[in-house]
């Protein structure tokens, strides 16, 4: 099979003021560490939630928003962040985003109430939404050649994937030794150091004063993506017919089509829809969304499995992912080199093919699994993360020319975040449905049907500790373990089948060579006829 190249060598970058042009490695370090922190906070808080609930007297719904507030703001404002970067200058926005992320971390670490903690998480998410698209665009500026840029994006992608993988690994031990505040406080000294160093080494990036703000597009994107994520997060816990969930779905259903209509007619749109008409960029977007959907959902529920079923501590459950993290470190730079030497689609095809294999492997273990049995699955997850997300960054940045690079990167990052939230919601819906049916069948063997039904509903809404107390606990508690495993396996196999279908679609889509990207700055490639 002849795979398409991701594009011809780019024109030379403009000269940078001072001696910053001679320090591209320092720029890469600043941006990789910043991206690592942003992605780390996607999952690092998960192991801290029980302690937060106890210290701040917060129920399950409030704890969900400790996690959701960060992801919601991060995903909803990535696209507006890209256009603000063009308008104000990418260097300026990157530093502002890093400062906001650091400030949000400090607010959360010193929070003495749920509202202050959530406020800090919102500020963190806004900072992440500002710096992520700016970072990729700045790398394009300091690495003008495709080969060196691909390697640099490989290291940045490895830092991103490593942040996701190390979230549970770092979060668990920090919570057990220093308290939940330490998960946020650790960002503060690192963020301050990066601000000082970044202000010195980051290149000047002139703003595009003629670029319009596209306020209708920004508002519709925030409303549509934010409404959709809100509904997906709240739906499993509040019910899909809850008025707030229905209102959020309605808002998203109206705002997202309106966004497409507005952007199609805008003279300078925030979202250039030709990004999706470029078949190879569409492949990258599909791969990022589907892989995030599967892996985020799987990792979230695997953490519950390790603590609910196997009885591990938060730190022990987090350390399970250490082996996957090691393989991300090793294969991330390798994916960048492969993308530079041959084609980014070769490692991408391998990565998306490994995803269903990893999910099927996770689904093959039950109530008495041991860590040694996962030793083959965790490296597969690590390799899958690197060989999928690193080539996606390379494809997007190299297929899109000029100032549109920030917009294209924001689309790719937004779809990845949206895929993760969708994965937790969608796979969670499968898990909850199968778990309730299985638990109900077992509970009805020892309890009247009405009591069994109420017990099943309570177990789903409040967890086993609240639902399985009392005189019937000994009779039904083993049934909960069996039911949870039934639901978990159903969710993982569902994800495996879905990602296998996506992998076949991607293979078919990249078989036919595509046109090379346009050389003019700011233009997207148009697909071949």
TrEMBL record:
Q: What is its main location?
A: membrane
The membrane topology of this protein is: Multi-pass membrane protein
What transmembrane ranges does the database entry give? Answer: 26-45, 65-85, 92-110, 122-140, 152-171, 183-203, 215-233, 245-262, 283-306, 312-335, 347-365, 377-397, 418-435, 490-510
All copies of domain Major facilitator superfamily (MFS) profile, residue ranges: 27-513
Q: Which CDD domains match?
A: MFS_MMR_MDR_like
> Which cellular compartments is it found in?
Cell membrane
Record keywords, A-Z: Antibiotic resistance, Cell membrane, Membrane, Transmembrane, Transmembrane helix, Transport
One Pfam match: MFS_1
**What top-level branch of life does the organism fall under?**
Bacteria
* Family listed: Belongs to the major facilitator superfamily. EmrB family.
PANTHER family this protein is in?
A: MAJOR FACILITATOR SUPERFAMILY MULTIDRUG TRANSPORTER MFSC
Q: What is this protein called?
A: MFS transporter
Species whose genome carries this gene = Streptomyces nogalater
